[in-house]
Here is the input.
Amino acid sequence: MSTARDIMTPDVTCVRSEENVVDAARRMVERDVGALPVLGPDGRVRGMLTDRDIVVRVVAEGRDPAACTAGELIRGELLTVGADDSLALVLELMADRRVRRVPVVDGSVLVGIIAQADVARRLPDGTVGDLVSDVSRAT
Here is the structure.
């Protein structure tokens, strides 16, 4: 295993930027995932929506999740990796940016996602521990 493609989960469930948060949350429950890539009108990945985003930026603020779209919750710069990028680069980027999940693209097409769980299932314990430690470190 030497590339992102080797460890990514290829069957990615997404949400469109114009879909409401209720639909996104239901999709998370159905797929038992904590995050969904958000696709723009052109079908390209625009960001990630997490269950934490929904709780902190919708529920806790008293916003109506049926009136709030996934696109409204996108924030920050999106990190993606190429399907043929080396695992070393992927792990370095995840650690440096402190992200638990990263969309994998081939050109501009979403082809998968790499989460900490994918790393845990497929790489040695020491590598997993290093990544979890780096991603979870306090700023």
Observations:
- The chain is about 40% helix and 20% strand.
